[in-house]
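Can't attach files on this board, so I'm pasting raw text. These are the components:
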Amino acid sequence: MDINNRKVLNKSVTGFGYFSIFLLALSLLIILLPIIINGLGAFFFKGTVEFRRVQYEKFNRGNNEDILAEINKTNVHKNYIYKKMHTFMDKIDEEEIEDSYKYEKNVNELYKLIKDLIGPPLDEDRPVLIREQYGETRWDKAEEKLDEILYKREWDYTNKDKIGRQVKTLRLNDFKGTEIEDIFRYIETNIEAIMLPEFTFYYNFLFDKSYDAHFFGGIWPEFLGTFYLALGAMIFAVPMGIIAAIYLAEYSKEGKILSILRTFISTLSGVPSIVFGLFGLAFFINTMKVSDSKSVLAGALTLALLILPTVIRSSEEAILAVPDTYREASLALGTTKLKTIIKVILPAALPGILTGVIISLGRAAGETAPIIFTAAVSVGSPLSFGEIFNQPSPALSWNIYNLVTEHEAVNEIRHVQYGMVFSLVLLVLSLNLVAVILRARITKKLRG
Amino acid sequence: MKSVNISDSIQISKGASLLKRLASSFTELILLAIASFSTIIVFFIIFYIARDALPFFKLEGIGEFFTSIRWYPSNEPAEFGAASIIFGTLIVTLVSSLIAIPLALMASISLSDILPFAIRQYVKPIIEMLAVIPSVAFGFFALVILAPLLQKSGGSLLGGVVVFIFFPILLLISYILSNIVYNKYLKKKVYYKYVLFSVMSGLSVFLLVYIYLVLSRIQVSSGTNILNVSVILGIMALPTMVSVSEDALWSAGRDLRENSYALGATRAETIFKVVLPAAKSGILAGITLGIMRVVGETMVVWMASGNAAQIPGPWYNIFEPVRTLTATIAGDMGEADHVTGSSRYHVLFAMALLLLIISFISNFLSEWFLSRSKKKLRD
Amino acid sequence: MKKMFLIIIMLVMVFSLSAKDKIVIDGSTTVGPIAKAFAEYFMSINKDVNVTVSESGSGNGAKSLVNSTCNIAAMSRFMKDKEFKASVANGVMPVAHVIALDGLPIIVHPSNPVKNLSVKQIRDIYMGNITNWKAVGGPDMKIVTISRDTNSGTYETFHKLVMKKQKIGKKCEYVGSNGAVRARVQSTNAAIGYAGLGFVDNTVKALKVNGIYPSKKTVSLGTYPIARPLYMFTNTYPKMGSNLYRFITLHLSKNGQEIVKGIGFVPVTNYKKTRR
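---
Top answer:
Structure tokens for the assembled complex are below.
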């Protein structure tokens, strides 16, 4: 072939190579960016006075006097709004207004929206459901709600052959000429004085338990559940994995047994995670009866099997990477083989083993399918250590699925879902970062 | 393994007492027992899954499961045709492989041969990050972000992505072609080359615009479909494929490359004619492992595949929802309504057994590929 | 060695000290919101009880009760005779508690001009006999049918009351929960689906069925054709005064009813209506 053509082809291959790496990085960015940006929204946001009320009343956070002062400040507006609404609604009940039936449906809708925005009137009996006790806790949600109060969305179906068109109309129009006509303007102009938005860093999102199916509070039970599950899996898998690795690296001789062992380890690592879930249910819960129902223990055992091959492989690599001179020196001093392994080889291989352990810790924390049937529940309180043997627990990975698909108010708690995904991804990535740093140190040490 | 032999010989030469030797072989035995734990677990898994799967075939026979597409597990009488579900797994695997394999191949080549060390250092963590992101996070992305986007403007989105990816590729191709033609026939006048290049790139732009227009006219009725999960699964399969095949390419060795360069080959020629053939087995192993990850993945398909037990019409319509084996197990296990003994419960174990068999086969395949590549390298 | 013993003893102590009473609920995703809200309310007034809720489907709830792996099976359908037989064989005597009533609104995207469908039309749509909205007075769009997974009680109710045991067409998409049905419908112009009454909000439009709009009133009157009671099953009637007893009778109290209503279901007992 012509030399020029070969040059051109060569350059093009380089171009393709760079392009493929660019695509790889781009796909990671596209997936992570929205999760990170929206996830941060669960921690950093403008909190309203209702948010601080929840924090004070449910978590005992904040200064009593400050909160009271804020509540009193907003109550001036609240009382004004509710007084007007109540008088008007009473009149409708008594049918003092002409055609009051015409207003009934609209005014009930408006009343509910107002309650959702600024919280119910404080002088009445508290509703039982916590989500009905407070108004919007986040300013972005409050703005959406305000828009909903001011504008009504209706669908125009006049063209029968096409799908309907959404039309925004002023809700004010429904109440033209009535005494609550000015309430819309009042809310619109005073919204900041009613809600008192303030920039908040809600780091306790991680450490608060949730109230009313994640309408309020944080993700502590899930976080704790994930922690227990991942740690429990480690407790079972790590000793087992390291011992297996020691055998593979130090004792076994090249031959049938070794190749069989290796084949089965890689086979185990190839088993789909959902099959592990079924196996955990059938074996640990139904046959072994480690607990009478789903429990953290059963989930941790299942996860342990899942990560065992990873632990074995990384530990074996770490042990094999220990230079032979270590072994020879120790053996020359007359130490037995077992002692050599425990006293010399394992300490030397420890950083490498640790790297593998940390990576599999991240894997265990992120897995969902194995714990569906063995450990995960939608609602449960944060567990103390002793309870993990017989109690199931929520976990980040499962509850992300649960909140996204099974929650009755999926759109209301979008920020919680993002916060959860973000926390899980952050947890796993930072574990991985630790592993990467550890590994970099080892390579340096080995080189230096 | 060398070390082991040395230490053994040292111990024996020291003439250890019988007791000591017994003790040492005893520890070895215990270690062996623990090391073979994985083996036992694999057998346990096979046993427990098969124990609950075989009754299904006894009750319903094998034919219906594999050939019928009528999946009505809760009807009276129930029908357990899993063909459409098996098809779902296959098509999702196929499409995601089509996305992942070329990209993984190119990425691993550039990691091993093209990128300078400074950049490679930063690319490796990217691949590792992709590998550790939990599958439920990918599923969340597919369901909450990608599905509405696909639904709203699926056609134009797909068109845009196709243009975005193929524009540089077509430009490169027209650059190559125009150069080849120029070098072969029109050596004299340089501006011919530019004319040729602009004509060809103009043609490819025209082609891309046409493709975009065709694609953007597609109405996507459902954002949770084959395309959605395949893209995500393809991305999830990338890290496995890339890291294993990069290892294979890397271990093809420096000598091989240097010999090729010494013979006057360019880098591209070295890669495609020398290194790739040498590393073929390892790359195949990586691809097999990556595909296995796609087949076994549960959360993404459960959340974003639409779960319709159908064979889309036409079968290659990637904008239709499908249902996969893993998602069926995860979703239908909640039913298992007749405690034990019902076909409806056992059919899920039959599916798990099928998955298990697929995973065993692909695992043995990849092992075989790997051992072959090792053998080749040794020779 | 001594240290080890101490640690083990301490572990055992921690274990025995912190063993809370627990109530395990498993079952339907439809009953899920009620169970979850009840659980949180119950835990807030009984600090020493841990109530856990799994939402894995009615069938799974029944299975868990039969295997005694849960205390309460939340179900959106009644137990089947096979399940009854299996539980009795296992020494479990299921007792049904109706905790709320629920309608099954047929929901479409709010942009869809169709307002009313008959049960027969819905059946035809799901069987695949009607494939375009044009046939039922809507715009020219291919209908996307969404159904709950076949394992759910919601599906079985729908299958019984609407499909009259006819087969659902193979084009139908199956999703795992009520929330997912709504999510699919609210993002799909041409979709039709069905979900629990509590899951209908302003992002989807509930259709009149046979001319009757699904509401708390029409459901409790029994005029809305696709309605059902929601159950919780226990193994025999719980011991009076026990935690389980107090939990399972929560729906009869005023607060319990308010919770049921607040989440969007229909309480079984009618307590006085106050508007505010």
